[in-house]
Amino acid sequence: MQNLISSLSRRTFLKLGAMTSAAGVAGTASASAAAAKTNPKGSGKISFWHHYTSDGERAGFAKVVDAFKVKSPAITLDITTVTNDDWMTKYIAATAAKSGPDTLMVTAARFKDMRKIGGLKDITAQVKNWPAKDGVSTTIGAFTERGKSYGVPWFTFIDWMYYRKDLFDAAGITKPPATLEEFRQTAIALTNPSKNQYGFAMRGGSGGGGFIPKMIHAWNGPFINPRTLLRQVKFETVRDAVSFWVNLSVKDKAVVPTVTSDGFAQIMANFQTGKAAMVMHHTGSFVQVAGYFKYGTQVETAAMPAGAGASTGFTSPLAHGIFASTKNPDAGFEWISYMGEAPAQVTFLKETGYFPTAASASEDAYVGATPQYKVALKAIGVYDTEYTFPGYTNWVSNTCLPEFQKALTGSQTAEKAARNIYDELGRVCTAASKALLSK
Amino acid sequence: MIALFIFYPLYRGVFLAFTRTKLLEGPDSTLNGFENFKNLFADPTFITALQNTFVFAAFGLTSQMLLGLGAAMLLSKERKYIGLIRVLVVLPWFTPPVVTAYMWRFMLDTNAGIIIQLLKDVGISFGEVGIWGNPHLAIFGALFVDLWASYPFFMLFILAGIQGIPKDMRESTSVDGASAFQHFRYVVLPLIKPVLIVSGLLGVIHLINSPTLMLLLTNGGPGDSTLVLPLYAFRQAFQGYDFGYASAISVLVLAAIAGFAMVYIRFAKFGKED
Fold first, then answer.
1. Could you say which residues form the signal peptide (chain B) (predicted)?
2. Half-sphere exposure of A328 (CA within 13 A, CB side)
3. Taking the model in full, what pTM does it have?
4. Is the peptide bond before A317 cis (omega within 30 degrees of 0)?
5. Which domains does chain A have, with CATH numbers?
6. Residue range A234-271, pLDDT digits in tens
């Protein structure tokens, strides 16, 4: 019903309301109440920043944009790609100059930083009046601070693993690893350097720092106190987590040797060519992998292995927000709320694999007919949400990654890397906690 | 007006270096004296970046100037299609840094790089981890890419200098019995010295000030093995949101370049007759 209401234009909706009133049909009151809960319709030109770069993402997004043009012809979109590397640079410049885009993407991991820097508009009132808001009630919290909402969820990154079923079958391995120790043993068993085959395509280049908090989380469970933002993990736990991850490469030699320079493109290429039997990513690469493997016989998906404290996998929603200095918030909200509903999200899911945030989208027939998504659906209830606190992304990119790389290349021990990662986490958390308390 | 455009941003940059300006603490700046500079010299990552910057600038300047000089000497002779050849040789310099970085990143990739495969075929290997994964080789990979992209800059400067030398001077030195090397050493080199000094100075400024290539090729890794000062300043500003600290790095780079320029020009006796 909420979808039906949101898909009607305001004029049509009022006409229907008037007709029902005139006819004296029972339920007029509820229809009027629903009309009052609809946001004002927007018009004019609005700009939008995103960071899609792959062909699949662009194609999927183009379909969503085309459908929006049909639904809201009074709004013209001016869409700009800003790469992830440039994102915060441009966001900071736009915030300082008060001349950013009308609407933009907000990842959960960056949300606290973007919020602190300013530039995101409080959209609490619009969300409150948005008929489809209940559909994203479980994810909108990631973009809410002190009771104020700053983003409408679009999709969720759900970590999972791809494994080469053909290579598993050839090695006599019947099921994917469920725990990190099983993962290690499986990776070792699948490694055969003479055949140029390794158990795992580890990401140690661009984006590789993100696996360090996943490992610490898997060993410890939540390592930040969500209330105080203070660190709640012992050094020994961080040391064990970092050492395990580093030693998959350094001691077990179960990782593709180019690990320190392998980013997303390289790990997927290693997996595609059979150089690696397992790779960790998220559902966003599901369609890409289908481009070169057949699910069921050649490749399969599996949940991220569990550690002693929690699963290695995170869910991490991504939302769209409105820029603080926009002159067209109505059109902006119409655009971002359109993407917050099931039809747009399912369109994007089919083209990419990015998993919807709207509850009704998860019940879509396409999701049910794709058995690999069972892993993702199950993971939603098991995984914790990725961390977000001020300074988190900088810690991941500029402490975790270089320290991890130094341990991989033998420039320092895993223990020394863990020590630097642990100490810097302490500094970042203390600063974040101080800022929280000073408010 | 011109002074406003030139000096105000410079003033702001220097001013920020003496403040605590952390965007995560709010947009305001508070004066903190030399605190950022004191912290810099106690920061091991800054020291690593300083060393890497020195290596990158020294090797970069030497290699680019030598190759530029060699190419200019070769292309200074008039022959058929020389105009076209000169344009083709200059093409790398016209290529945007983003294209240059991605192109070479993949051509030198251990698994899929065509150049790495060709080198393997003739028995040259960079090991299992390759160039970009090796902390000792990655900076030289970046230097090679910058050599490819930047030597035409030196070549153009030097070629212009060589073409300014009267043609009959070579005939005169030949009559006097000078070899080609002696002509180069005692005639060409002194005459193009001002060009070498100016291009060298501009080259050093480019090498020290350009984080783009390193950002896209290695992002400072593996570890901090290719982290250079402008990239470190960029990280501090736009990933750590600490504009005070980032400005302090930039001010030191500015001071180092200005100091280098003064010493370099004085040492090279620029503008004085030999």
1. none
2. 22
3. 0.88
4. no
5. 40-157+315-384 (3.40.190.10), 159-313+388-437 (3.40.190.10)
6. 999 999 999 999 999 999 999 999 999 999 999 999 99
